[in-house]
Amino acid sequence: MDIHEYQAKELLSNFGVTVPQGGLAYSPEQAVYRAQEIGGTAWVVKAQIHSGGRGKVGGVKVCQNAEEVRTTAANLLGRRLVTHQTGPRGKLVHRLYIEAATEIEREIYLGLVLDRRMERLVVIASPDGGMDIEEISAKRPEHIVRKAIEPAVGMQAFEARELAFKLGVDKTLISQAVSTLLGCYRAFRDLDAIMVEINPLVVTRDGRLLALDAKMSFDDNALFRRPNISELRDKSQEDEREMRATDRGLNYIGLEGNIGCIINGAGLAMATMDMVKHAGGEPANFLDIGGGASPERVSKAFRLVLDDPKVEAILVNIFAGINRCDWVAEGIVQAVSEIDIKIPVVVRLSGTNVEKGKKIIKQSRVSCIMADDLEDAANKVIVAWRKHTGLAGK
Ligand code: GDP
Ligand code: MN
What we know:
The chain is α+β, with helices and mostly antiparallel strands. It contains 13 helices and 18 strands.
């Protein structure tokens, strides 16, 4: 789960990371009020969306007076911002964060991520902040500093100091840099984060170290024990299809194609998506309905897949181990007859009670195309989809 910049800043400041003074606004009037509350002569109006790259598309603007704050706020609120991270639909701006503007001397990149291969938390940093880490690694890979943290002892002060020196932090700011690094590390560990990014971490003209931007992501599987984190969820920033799936306990990831996939098991789902591509189609989603799929669950899965208007054919691929093909078949029959599905449905069943399952579908007279194995299923769904959409022969 991702959270907003202002939320990440609040969490990190509780761990000793220094951030500019700021306040949240839901309207242009509130934005002006916040600026006055903060005081000073310049402010930054920042669109709060779950994405980086806001600066490049007008989502971050330095303002010199109250009128500018007002017009910038009015212009951003209610707009969809499209960045290189949001996908073409962009993300809706509902909230703004107003901050005291900072005079920047230097920008540093600081990231903490989980390296699954090393089974370690890794600090990735670079003296060339301001650009994305992708850009830094393309342009100045030799400037990137990496440091894996030993989990048994955690990040040590001397390691933080070493990192700060490698980033070229001035002697007078070393202890602040150490607090920032240790603070980020502790926040990561204590809050079950999977990513913390401060880009840029800046040295100000008046010689302070400030986190000018902050991003955090959390482990969904740990949210149950972090109520203070899970309440920061902002559903308006999530893919609607995935949000509906999460709410129904299904493991779903929306994609751009038009072949809907209903599958049990993540591995089989991946293999099926590969086969759909191999057969000349594009999957519309990844969907793992899980082990003990009841007819109700299968029916829910159909509704979810069909909620996506791009879906023009459905492939159901079940290998029943814990599952039973007859249950799944009942779910398919229930879904197809209730929902009045107008697109082709190809079904491949295998494993426990497969004959019983096939019989249920046959006797129900719902119109499903049956397939024998994975390859056959992928080919049949593509043929049926082409026929359905008038692409046959192309
Ligand atoms: P992002 O584009 O979504 O990563 O948003 P950031 O919060 O990182 O802001 C983008 C860029 O705007 C930063 O890299 C800075 O260069 C600039 N910026 C942000 N806040 C300030 C500020 O207070 N003063 C100045 N001068 N520039 C700022
Ligand atoms: Mn940034």
